[in-house]
């Protein structure tokens, strides 16, 4: 019996999110050549599976239950996991997994590849120093997921060996029926609906989006899919602004394409971003997008059908929405243009092929 080489995808916390979804896409795309394990520093297997139904599709999920702060025992537990499962490759994502994965691999014949998913986080505290130190000490193949991320890393002295653009499984994101999607989500059928699929955290600037809604006509609604630490505060803001009938908190939706199908305009107005997967997903569903000009958003936005904001102040957001709704567009033609662009910039199969070549040829 021929055994496939074991590839461990290591993330900080295996929960709904852009880079975590990217890790799952890689696991699916690489499963023919590799025995892929999904390992999370935080959480245990039961809690991880309970909070993300998509993990049902992946038999090899493991949580290391890392406690808060620095944990030497987590390094030991990860090393034991790599040895026990005879891991051949480790693919880490973000700083924590880089540090713990790099330390766990010392002395083992495990090829280490690391992906940097944003550059803006390097500007916080000692992130740049730690990342630079870890890349130099553990010497993984160092990959950035976008040109802008590579430029930011290199500006901060972090070595980057290759740029491999993120991608999504486009078979899951196709055109859909708007009215059926709205009915399924209990959204108004005759409104103009803005929306976002994201974690409700401060970096996403959802408060700015809600404030912008207050400046827009009453037939414009906002649908928010996702959970997070900011939800309660955002709900209070909605009440204070009297927008309870126009803002719809959908919570976690297993199939985000259903949300995209319901929208007239997908809005990503974050303070900071890397290379957001949701932007590719929405356009693959034929939905027009409006984004703040941060990170790699500009490059992932359709150059003529998208709306690029100069900043994410509420007034600017409101003006962007108005301009998007005023511009006439032949919906069927626009949708096809958006999907073709998404395939061009964010095909998950192409991403996986690039990683496959790098794993087989360089992370050894």
Automatic annotation (TrEMBL):
What keywords appear on the UniProt entry?
A: Transferase
Transferase recorded as keyword: yes
- Glycosyltransferase subfamily 4-like N-terminal domain: which residues? 16-171
Out of the domains of life, which is the source? Answer: Bacteria
| InterPro entries in the cross-refs | Glyco_trans_1, Glyco_trans_4-like_N
The record, for Pfam families, names: Glyco_transf_4, Glycos_transf_1
**Which GO terms fall under molecular function for this chain's record?**
glycosyltransferase activity
Q: Which residues form the Glycosyl transferase family domain?
A: 182-336
Q: Is this entry keyworded Transferase?
A: yes
Biological process GO annotation list? carbohydrate derivative metabolic process
Concerning PANTHER family, the annotation shows: GLYCOSYLTRANSFERASE
What's this protein's name?
Answer: Glycosyltransferase
Q: Which organism is it from?
A: Ferrimonas aestuarii
At the highest ranks, the source species' classification is:
Bacteria, Pseudomonadati, Pseudomonadota, Gammaproteobacteria, Alteromonadales
